[in-house]
């Protein structure tokens, strides 16, 4: 979706229009469009309902040979949104299986623009969130090479940015940051499309690590403002978590309190969306200040819990502050905190 209308004017009204038809293709398309809109609005539970129904309808349409080609193309685009929704709901293994299948069917279709979305909407971000940098690098290279052969400018720019992000995550922060910043500058206003949110958030995080904390905060605040203006909620929890970590790096007098507030907002937002993956990454923040979430950890949750735990000194011996290893309070008790991709923090 290139742009958004206020939520009150979109999914519900569209669903009402869709209910007026009995045409199988129209109903399938309606569910597919509703699933996409609800996913970006942050309502992953309802998005899952509609994406599953669209896929069921597509399976039924397989019996109509006159629309086989349309059906197959639609399955490709429906599957990469299914993978995103599954990931955000906290089903990473299922999401990754859909990604692998989606790449195969995207290759079989042979439609250049559709395959860009298979890689850029599904495979690249999900591999990155899973912490599998080898797969992320592989998929990013596939997208870059694909957009070299088929000149699709915006996806080519996106691939350059994403590959720069992977380079930064592998340890070459300077080279990765240059590629990421340069690509986003080249994208211009298009950098505020939904597909670029991951890159903007990670740019802010990388800027913080490079010591440019003020610019990192400016970047994440701009992304949050855009999301607020468009009711685009799917990535807000992660942006809040990144902002919380930048606040910690800024090291102001009230940094821990401010960061905790941001991490709590991230968790609350992901719970409202019923996207359990969002809750896991939100919980990563709690890991930095000594709070263990009681709910099942899933995608955004896990990351915010750890961030929150590391942002606050450990308390032990009945409320006495323990300065020992305060960035990893679980270490003294032999606990293993994990971050993206179940890697130790």
Structural commentary:
Strands 1-2 form a two-stranded antiparallel sheet. The protein is mainly α. The protein has 15 helices and two strands. Helix 8 (153-169) runs antiparallel to helix 9. The chain has three domains: 1-110, Serine Threonine Protein Phosphatase 5, Tetratricopeptide repeat; 111-234, Tetratricopeptide repeat domain (Serine Threonine Protein Phosphatase 5, Tetratricopeptide repeat, Alpha Horseshoe); 244-345, no CATH class.
Give the integer mean of the pLDDT values. 80
Number of strands: 2
CATH evolutionary superfamily of the largest domain: Tetratricopeptide repeat domain
Give the terminus-to-terminus CA distance.
35 Å
Question: Number of domains in the coordinates?
Answer: 3
CATH C-level class of the largest domain:
Mainly Alpha
Secondary-structure content class: mainly alpha
Please tell me the CATH architecture of the largest domain by its name: Alpha Horseshoe
Oligomer: single chain
Biggest sheet record: 2 strands, antiparallel
Instruction: Note poorly predicted spans.
Output: 1-8, 285-298, 315-345
Strand order of the largest sheet: 1-2
Number of helices: 15
> What is the alpha-carbon Rg in Å?
21 Å
CATH fold name of the largest domain: Serine Threonine Protein Phosphatase 5, Tetratricopeptide repeat
What is the overall silhouette? Answer: globular
| Order of helical and strand elements | HHHHHHHHHHHHHHHEE
């Amino acid at each position: 979706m290139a742009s958004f209308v206020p939520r009150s004017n979109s999914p519900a009204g569209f669903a009402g229009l869709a209910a007026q038809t009995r045409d199988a293709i129209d109903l399938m398309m309606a569910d597919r469009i509703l699933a996409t809109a609800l996913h970006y609005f942050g309502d992953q539970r309802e998005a899952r309902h509609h994406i599953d129904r669209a896929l069921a309808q597509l399976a039924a349409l397989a019996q109509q040979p006159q629309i086989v080609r349309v059906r197959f193309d639609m399955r490709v685009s429906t599957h990469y949104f299914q993978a995103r929704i599954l990931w955000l709901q906290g089903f990473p293994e299922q999401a990754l299986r859909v990604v692998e299948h989606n790449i195969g069917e995207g290759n079989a279709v042979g439609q250049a623009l559709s395959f860009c979305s298979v890689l850029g909407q599904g495979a690249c971000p999900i591999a990155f969130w899973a912490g599998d940098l080898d797969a992320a690098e592989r998929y990013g290279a596939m997208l870059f090479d694909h957009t070299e052969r088929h000149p699709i400018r915006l996806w080519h720019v996106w691939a350059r940015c994403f590959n720069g992000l992977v380079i930064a995550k592998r340890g070459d922060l300077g080279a990765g940051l240059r590629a990421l910043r340069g690509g986003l500058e080249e994208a211009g206003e298009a950098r505020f499309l939904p597909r670029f949110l991951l890159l903007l958030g990670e740019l802010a995080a990388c800027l913080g690590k490079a010591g440019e904390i003020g610019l990192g905060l400016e970047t994440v605040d701009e992304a949050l403002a855009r999301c607020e203006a468009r009711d685009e909620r799917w990535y807000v929890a992660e942006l809040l978590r990144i902002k919380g970590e930048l606040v910690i790096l800024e090291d102001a007098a009230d940094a821990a309190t401010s960061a905790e507030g941001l991490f709590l907002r991230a968790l609350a937002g992901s719970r409202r969306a019923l996207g359990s993956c969002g809750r896991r990454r939100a919980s990563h923040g709690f890991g930095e200040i000594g709070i263990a979430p009681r709910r099942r950890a899933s995608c955004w949750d896990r990351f915010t819990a750890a961030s929150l735990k590391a942002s606050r000194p450990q308390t032990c011996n009945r409320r006495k502050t323990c300065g020992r290893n305060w960035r990893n309070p679980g270490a003294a008790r032999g606990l293993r905190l994990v971050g993206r991709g179940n890697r130790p923090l």
